[in-house]
Amino acid sequence: MGTKRSPKARANELRRLIQHHDRQYYVENDPEIADFEYDQLLEELTVLEKQHPELATPDSPTARVAGVPLEGFTTVRHAVPMLSLDNTYSADELRQFDARVKKQLAVNSVAYTVELKLDGVGVSLTYENGLLVRGATRGDGEQGDDVTANIRTIRSVPLKLTGEELPGAVEIRGEVFMSRSGFAALNERRVRDGAPAFVNPRNAAAGSLKLLDPKEVQKRPLDAFFYQVVNAFELGIVTQTEAVTVMVGMGVKAGPHLTRCDCIEDVIDACLGRQERRRELDYDIDGMVVKVDSLEMQLQLGATGKSPRWGIAYKFPAESATTVVQDIVVQVGRTGRLTPVALLESVFVSGSTVSRATLHNQDEIDRLDIRIGDTVIIEKGGEVIPKVVKVVKSKRTGRPRRFRMPEECPVCGEPASRPDGEVDLRCESVSCPAQLKRRLEHFASRGAMDIEGLGKALVDQLVDEEMVSDYGDLYSLTRDELAALERMGEKSADNLLSALEGSKERPFDRVLYALGIRHVGSRVASALAEGFPSMTALAAAGAEELAAIDEVGPVIAVSVESFLGAQRNMEVMEKLKVAGVRTEAVRRVPRSGSLEGKRFVLTGELPGMTRTAATEAIEAAGGRVSSSVSPRTDYVVAGSKPGSKERKAKGLGVTIIDEEKLRRLLAG
Ligand code: IVH
């Protein structure tokens, strides 16, 4: 097979072939060769690149997964903000939109495009000279996460654009999503492995795109559709229809089922038609997007606040179904919250079978007057868990049973209480097994201590057998104890022990998050760990001091104070510490020491990195960051809108540098 040619020529040919077949398979949905033949091409290229490492290129299909897991994502500021669309829910609202557009443009007719509104994660990709150089999430629209390594693993995203004349730079936007079939297969695998199932394809896509290890991301069936060329004008593109055609020409999966309409009535037909047929697609859409086709007109229309005036989303109504409440049970959550849940006669709605619905609390049950045996209408909107919206009173027969929330926790029997000003009942007992189980699951979960193998089933066993009554106990489990558990062999016991050992390496902020302190999510945990880099420092700080941290409000501060103030919790912290879990932040060892002893001050907003990221990078290279400029300061790093610090630096003759120069210094 082509062995006469030079390895370089063959490698190039293989890359071209694989790229072509990737496109046929993942973009065009029209494969030309069997999977087996494709695998052979990929294998040949992999071997060739191994033998001749100098031939490897960044756009090689073998380089979709590159590098090691990341510590975290860097923040990317979008050059052009990623706006969101206003929503409409009816044909009439679409007509009003059309009237507004025409009025502002002072024209009688406007052509529109109608596109699918994919339900996924918004992303923006940059290609330079045809090569994918950056992928970022939408984030808050102004700045998102740099997820380039993860985007590269998506097979339908070309690492290299195709076509004759490629633009120097092009930024395209679209949606990363998971097909329904991919989602079903992923969940099946997870359940088999004892991992929790994802609730819907959107959550699965979002969760996958945020994984720090691209090797893991590659195992997730992610896909992407693109719908916007950001620098279209520069490229001479004049309509949205053309933008989609250009993207398709470059090998990008773009604008699925785009329809161009000459008037709003055709737009309405297109929207309603798709609404009827939405189940025919293998992916979830939550509506349609209507855009003025002419980019010139789009520019003229502009935007208000966060949404453009040239486009609008037509959202499909939430799907509903009628079913019967067979029973109402009470669930105990991780923080001790008691939630009433309706057990329903199974019913198929919005693409999945529903058999439970949350009833939130007693107030909600009373408001809707829901009784056991009632026929109810449930609705599944954007939310994950369906809700009961109405009781069909006309179908009430006999004497349906009223339900009252219990006064005790249904699991441990301790009295439940309703804290002042809250609607929820809580079980306050720290040793409630139900809470303990949920807490341990959280402690072991991916974003927390990431203890592989410690899933729901095993947690249930450990608590039921009274082998574990707090986090600390996990670390004194022995091989024999574990191997004696049902469905647990010596091999799994060893795996778990090594996973537990590995979890001792998690940084302090992850440990803090893992503790499951009420209101302390991963962001707050990072902020707390930054301000108070040890458990002792945190415990010594009062609520007021804690609340002085940016991300920490008074409610969080009180919650942390009371958690660390409890004698029982401090005993657990001690156990963790003795076990070797990190109860304080580790100062990073300077990597190259290129900035050893240098003093920096940061001011203004840096375009491509957050202050925290800049500080970490400087400290990692041996430098120090302080908050005020003095004659001993070596560099002031000034971003946009620098404040008085820059003026002071000028006065003192301190060197002022920008982000780019900082990056160069960091690179040594
Ligand atoms: S255009 C100015 N087109 O829906 C906004 N968005 O609220 C440009 N979305 O953030 C977006 N499918 O993440 C556009 N065909 C489509 C879309 C789409 C899904 C998402 C996107 C956006 C949100 C709008």
Describe the protein's architecture and organization.
- This protein has 668 residues and is α+β, with helices and mostly antiparallel strands.
- Helix content is 37%, strand content 20%.
- Strands 14, 15, 16, 17, 18, 19 and 20 form a seven-stranded antiparallel sheet that branches. A five-stranded mixed sheet has the order 2-13-10-3-9. A four-stranded antiparallel sheet has the order 5-4-7-8.
- The structure holds 2-(butylsulfanyl)adenosine.
Brief summary:
37% of the residues lie in helices and 20% in strands.
Key features of this structure:
single chain, 668 residues, alpha+beta, five-stranded mixed β-sheet, 25 helices, globular, binds 2-(butylsulfanyl)adenosine
C-alpha-based Rg, rounded: 28 Å
Helix content: 25-40%
Report the total helices.
Answer: 25
Q: Please report the distance between the alpha carbons of the first and last residues.
A: 46 Å
Largest sheet: 7 strands, antiparallel
Low-confidence spans: none
Mean pLDDT figure: 88
Number of strands: 24
Measured by DSSP, the beta-strand proportion falls in 15-25%
**Global geometry:** globular
The class by helix and strand makeup works out as: alpha+beta
User: Which ligands does the model contain, each kind named once?
Assistant: 2-(butylsulfanyl)adenosine
Chart the SSEs and their pairings:
Blueprint: H1 7-27, H2 35-51, E1 75-77, E2 87-88, H3 91-105, E3 112-118, E4 121-128, E5 131-137, E6 143-145, H4 148-151, E7 169-178, H5 180-192, H6 201-209, H7 214-218, E8 222-229, H8 240-249, E9 259-261, H9 264-277, E10 285-292, H10 295-301, E11 303-304, E12 307-308, E13 311-315, E14 319-332, E15 337-349, E16 352-358, H11 362-368, E17 375-380, E18 387-391, E19 416-417, E20 425-427, H12 433-444, H13 456-464, H14 471-474, H15 479-483, H16 490-503, H17 508-514, H18 522-531, H19 535-540, H20 543-547, H21 554-565, H22 567-579, E21 599-603, H23 611-620, E22 624-626, E23 635-638, H24 644-652, E24 655-657, H25 659-666
Parallel strand pairs: 2-13, 21-22, 21-23, 23-24
Antiparallel strand pairs: 1-6, 3-9, 3-10, 4-5, 4-7, 7-8, 10-13, 11-12, 14-15, 14-17, 15-16, 15-20, 17-18, 19-20
Helix pairs in contact: 1-2, 3-9, 12-13, 17-18
Bound molecules: 2-(butylsulfanyl)adenosine (IVH).
